[in-house]
Amino acid sequence: MGEGGPEGCEQSAVELEPCLWGAGPRGGTDLHSRGPQQGRTSFYGRFRHFLDIIDPRTLFVTERRLREAVQLLEDYKHGTLHPGVTNEQLWSAQKIKQAILHPDTNEKIFMPFRMSGYIPFGTPIVVGLLLPNQTLASTVFWQWLNQSHNACVNYANRNATKPSPVSKFIQGYLGAVISAVSIAVGLNVLVQKANKFTPATRLLVQRFVPFPAVASANICNVVLMRYGELEEGIDVLDGDGNLVGSSKIAARHALLETALTRVILPMPILVLPPIVMSMLEKTALLQARPRLLLPVQSLVCLAAFGLALPLAISLFPQMSEIETSQLEPEIARATSSRTVVYNKGL
């Protein structure tokens, strides 16, 4: 991770341990648990951290290399490291484990649904969403495929500390697909019936249809799949990482922050490529070689995706902070801390 560690921690011999093993929800130490201090790091620190998490090179890590990384971190945790192990090796092992294993279950996440696989496996879907002259069938297909992929990514990277019934996953999946397809088809029909538009303008407007459809579906997906948090509340921690209680108000904040992230994420991906492609299509090169349109659009979508993902998920800390005075009275009475933190999720 270079000179920066998880969530922007600085790499030094003194600070390496707390950054790696941040205090867990009940004061324990675990590789993937987030200490309260990590919720107050800078946007730049979070951005650098998530650049490591989404690094597609981790998709090619072998089973043997993963086992070695896990063992190295276990040796560090128990003070049994072999002489000569460097901080760089430890941070590399940390990066591999965080990118491949689920933080709660320590089980491998299926490759297409890892955050590091989001861009390489999601870009072809984005290209399909932005294809010009979509038919009703192709619109429905690409919206369905996109929300199916998103639902699987959300489920694979969910907070697994509490059981999540399959019915919630099915509700979120159906709600996201139905809302995305309905809005996309409805907007396409409106554009087709807009007689005031010239053919060129109609084609340009049609290219922007996927964004409102995907953004609204993403919100629906988050709310439906995490509705149980609103009903039961989520854990909040004090400044020492001790569990204070469960808060429904904190859950609302967590879902709001996550929903905003889901709206901002597709914005550069589905808005920038149509603008860029509308300009590139007028160049002599692409007009003379129309077969290059699809490869060029794929590269533009890949670049937009690579920019949007780390920016969007870095907007809010993984561990967000809130004043106890804004929470339920029983939470405020249960701690002397002025603020508490909670796991927002990704």
From TrEMBL:
Pfam families referenced in this protein's UniProt entry, alphabetically: SFXNs
GO BP term, example: mitochondrial transmembrane transport
Topology with respect to the bilayer: Multi-pass membrane protein
InterPro entries referenced in this protein's UniProt entry, alphabetically: Mtc
Localization in the cell: Mitochondrion membrane
A GO cellular-component term linked to this record: mitochondrial inner membrane
Keywords attached to this entry: Amino-acid transport, Membrane, Mitochondrion, Transmembrane, Transmembrane helix, Transport
One example GO MF annotation: citrate transmembrane transporter activity
Spans through the membrane: 172-191, 203-224, 263-280, 292-316
NCBIfam families documented for this protein: mtc
Protein family (similarity comment): Belongs to the sideroflexin family.
PANTHER family named among the record's database cross-references: SIDEROFLEXIN, SIDEROFLEXIN-5
Record-given protein name: Sidoreflexin
Organism: Phyllostomus discolor (pale spear-nosed bat)
Gene it is expressed from: SFXN5
